[in-house]
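Methods — Computational structure assignment.
A single polypeptide chain was analysed. Its primary sequence is given first, followed by the predicted tertiary structure written as structure tokens.
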Amino acid sequence: MERMDLKEHRSIAIDGPSGAGKSTLAKRLAKELGYRYVDTGAIYRTVALAALRAGVEPSDEKEVAALLPGLRVTLDYDGDGLQHMYLNGEDVTEAIRRNEVSGGASKAAAIPAVRAFLLETQRELARSFDVIMDGRDIGTVVLPDADVKIFLTASPEARAERRWKELLERGQSADRDQILKEVMERDARDTGRASAPLRRAEDAVLADTTELDFEGSFRLLLGMIRERLGGTPNE
């Protein structure tokens, strides 16, 4: 595998299945450590939004690939460190959170041409800043030389339970059994896809949070990071 050039900045890769808490934990860790959090899911959502706006099904490999040369996907951060996504200059940070876009993102992310199109965007961020980046293939493909690699997981039942409670807290109706079914289907899709399947990097440390709450999970990951970086990461 091609290795990245010698880096001025540190990078932390957090991979794992859907619903493991990667984004929430990565945001908290980035704030604690003074790193930039890179939400790679938002980047793929932006491509899915572009496809939907063009009337293209996000899983249509040929049609989505044909759109890519005309897309300019960029990101920036506001004063509070919130990541904003831009599609051809338009701020689509809110638009990409709609349900139909969420469903299309995982489909678009399975297309090899899309992953290749966005790869350099993600790597450039790691060359420019100290970053915490989460996703499915950060430690294996995007940042194979990351300073710290963590594979974050929890049982399907625990992840479904967390998602169910989250939806209830938002005032939305939810079926716990249906959510568990969706979690397991997503796992099968992510691990079985031909392009950059979800898997644990050989040098990634495993963090299983099945029995932990958010605070316990945060402390576990923070300890792992500090141990592997030999102290406070931003020293």
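Note: The CA atoms of residues 118 and 215 lie 32 Å apart.
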